[in-house]
Queue: 2 jobs
Job 1
Amino acid sequence: MESVSSYFGSMVFNDTAMRRRLPHDTYDQLQRTIKEKRHLDIGLANIVAHAMKEWAIENGATHFTHWFQPMTGITAEKHESFISPVSGGKVIMEFSGKELIRGEADGSSFPSGGLRATFEARGYTAWDATSYAFIKDGTLCIPTAFCSFGGHALDKKTPLLRSMQALSKQALRVVKLFGNEDVHYVDSSVGAEQEYFLIDKSVFEKRKDLIYTGRTLFGAKPPKGQELGDHYFGTIKPRVFAFMKELDEELWKLGITVKTEHNEVAPGQHELAPIYSSCNIATDHNQITMELMQKIAKKHDMVCLLHEKPFAGVNGSGKHNNWSIATDTGVNLLNPGETPAENAQFLLFLCAIIKAVDEYQDLLRISIASAGNDHRLGASEAPPAIISIFTGTDLEEILKCLELDIPYGGKEKELMKIGVHTLPRFQRDTTDRNRTSPFAFTGNKFEFRMPGSSASIADPNITINTAVASALKEFADILENAADFENEMHKLIRRTISEHKRIIFNGNGYDDAWTKEAEARGLCNYKTTPDALVHLLDEKNIRLFSDFGVYSAEELNAQYEIRMENYCKVIRIEALTLLNMVNKDILPAVSTFLQQLCDSYQAQKATALPVEPLYESSLIKDLTNKRNQLFERKNQLQALLNTDQTYYDITQRAFFCKDRILVLMNEIRVLLDEMEEVTRTDVWPYPTYGAILFSVK
Ligand code: ADP
Ligand code: MG
């Protein structure tokens, strides 16, 4: 068997490939352009394109595509072949610098939130040279940003790159205050843990709800779920193992550093984690990972469910976004150091994050809001919709002592003076350290646990990067002009802790008491997507994004439109699917079953048995009642769907979806689950939860 190191990254036009295939000076020039984030000139692009094409063809590629991430959160590609006709009816394989650096995409069907009039439907894609080109399915994929001709971002990569730049610029100012002159840029690093379900293809194909919506819209609780906890980190089944093995290999070829794979809490649930990388790369890699997971599952006759809550009553799936910031000299700024200066720098960055998360808690909540994630947040296994930071009790105590200027420590209690004394060693808290906290400090990084499993991690990272950039800017503005740096920093840290400590919470986030306390602390608790999203356009949020050049007010408006609209569409599709299932399958099936019960009842009556056939008589009554209620409710749902169309205003429509349509769908669900429990197995038209969750043997 081939060793992993021999094929790792073999399908990526990475640094090694570039070094090998590009003339020395071209390679150097390209590296400089990438580092300085400048535009590639056409001469250089032509040479790079040629080398890239030769490499791609040798590795089996026949086509190329500009691979981009429209605002829908998925990836898009338009394949073009390398062939170019020459005389004599022959073709040659061609790929020019122009084709490498810029493409035109007729993106009129991608949502633009009004940023691009349909008569000017074209957008253009531009190579993001910081992310390597790769080969997927015989196609050379060039990671690109997608913009309108007016220069508006129509994708998630553009604002992400902008946010990284903003963060780097401000972090650099702070780092320089500590004399780190050798640092040229600061990058955010991300490791995204991905949760997912695997189910057998045969059960998937029998559930229209899974096919159309990615989640089950009903399903009675199975006799056994996750209560025994026997799946978590359990032995991996051979079929799943074969899937993971192939997935690992394919991801490794693409230079994606998947590291751990294990079973998760719910039956059929698993998790995959890569080794962290730069925020932009991690985002691209996570998109590719999701795509490959789905594709490879199919090859193994399984389906990979990425929905945040495919099944009620068992855990949903998230995507833990581990985030830290590091210098290009390799220093993780969230690592408490060994010297007083390193500690002071760490504390300053920690405070910037505390301030950022507190001031922009609404934006963080918004960044992960989706119709799917609404079913997961606040459920028993997921963090609540309230944002708070977990520091661990030791660090919290240290912050408190700093704020109040009181001694910290066991025997020889000591007053801490920032920049003079080293921080007391604090424990990396491992007891329940992050299970219930949405934003947990885990020693040298923060783990944001709220992102949903199906979403791109671009949005949360755009938000974290920008909010932290803003806090760092304020700090740098103050400290660069300080007469007495250490003294000013000490004051700044104390003030920040005092103003923003309300966001720190080390208790149990699943506890009802926390919801009350959070309210008393004035923290936001936006339970649903529309409740959260309406704050996207709050003045302070528009100011944040436009001040740092991440989103213009126009672009943010477009975001709002697109996301609200997406929410409405998802719920509408779910409601239509539910109606289809009820009308075409469930009502007829229940009628069939009732008929069988009536036949049986009558047959028994005819034999003149001395006792009443209770099973039949009581069930006929109960089921007929429920069927009538179901009939009524589904007619109401149909009527609501007709009304919904008439709401022109997108905000009103979203609230209508949430307050009326979803509520009614839930009522229908309760009825369906009760009916399923008593209907004969062979008559009920859909695989049950038990059959689905335990379908992979
Ligand atoms: P834990 O199990 O404590 O959550 P892991 O070491 O398993 O931690 O890491 C989980 C994820 O966090 C992995 O993707 C890992 O690469 C990533 N990670 C580790 N260190 C950092 C860091 N400094 N910055 C960002 N991500 C990190
Ligand atoms: Mg983790």
Job 2
Amino acid sequence: MSFASLGLIDQIVRTLASLDYQSPTPVQSQAIPAVLAGRDVMAAAQTGTGKTASFALPLLQRLSMDGMQVNSNAVRALVLVPTRELAEQVHQSVRTYGEGLPLRTMVAYGGVSINPQMMRLRKGVDLMVATPGRLLDLARQNAVRFNQVQALVLDEADRMLDLGFARDIDQLIGLLPKRRQTLLFSATFSEPIRALATTMLRDPVSIEASPRNTTAKAIRQWIVPVDKKRKPELFLHLLKRHAWPQALVFVKTRKGVDQLVELLEAKGIAADSIHGDKPQPARLRALERFKAGEVRLLVATDVAARGIDIDELPAVVNVDLPIVAEDYVHRSGRTGRAGASGEAVSLVCADEVQQLAAIEQLTRQSLERREEPGFQPDHRVPETNASGQIVKKPKKPKKPKHGASSAKGDAPVVQEDVRFRR
Ligand code: AMP
């Protein structure tokens, strides 16, 4: 199938050829005609399978073809994303895909001066990529008007609709025209979010380009059981053993990120970090340095879990498992993109068994356990089964009292049996 056969205009088809996109990915071939036709869309597709182009290409085409003039401070299409880094990246893609089209685009997010964003809005903007908080700020200062909005995209839609963003999104949606096209894209959709999402859509086209909540097949995944306190040591060991040229490393807390970077730097390993306490320019610089191959490791909290597209990233390492199972899918999805292969390794301690079980249940897979010689944990990580349940360890039998019934007396024999088989 070709891009032209999906109804895309020559200018866009030429741009795609110059990017060496040979044919549409499955989500693109389903979403592009639907968006071009003006339909609402809810699309679930695995990480790294070209979701950005699925909404950006047809929206850019519609905006450039309808001949409407954008008024001062107005916006005609809004793409909302959960993180600043993703906002930058999506806007970069929009600019690339919109090459040669007579459209004004911009990106707006917090943590940087609002003035240039207000200036840019003065002449009106055809397509704006934004994080919700900053967009609301702009709206409060009357710098942006929504009466011309014809399309709203929620990228990483499940994250945008969950509790952290729900209030901002509710407020924003209240400001938008009711008659508009709404597009929801994500790799993961939980059932409650799906139900909520449906209420925002009008007769939507539902697209499932791959099984929901799954990681791309090209990503080899496994866990290494380890005691919590030995995680940094094991991480250094794995780094040496696998010799990944680059890896994106996830840690639960901001403090944990800083500590790991300190340790790496002390060992002479080039690393940078991204987390919510860092000023935005430093966050973007860290990402740029990593993408340019100037640092081997980028250590981050979940702010970097979603959407970030790093060419040929060979590995993702979860030093800590994410609290929310969906984030595992997004973190892993930073590797194995655009058909490449990749590895996702998680260091798991006994405390994290609940999270492990939730991840296995969500992704409907049992993650392979590879013990690392010399790092076998004292606190065993309980077994989990394929449906994500924790297999309870049989309780230690009580010593039978004198004269106890034979039923109780039998128990230790069974337990012994279990123990020997292990
Ligand atoms: P996305 O899921 O939008 O972040 O895209 C993942 C990666 O795939 C990006 O590096 C895109 O440039 C690339 N990509 C998207 N669509 C195609 C395509 N049809 N052919 C080749 N590469 C693509």
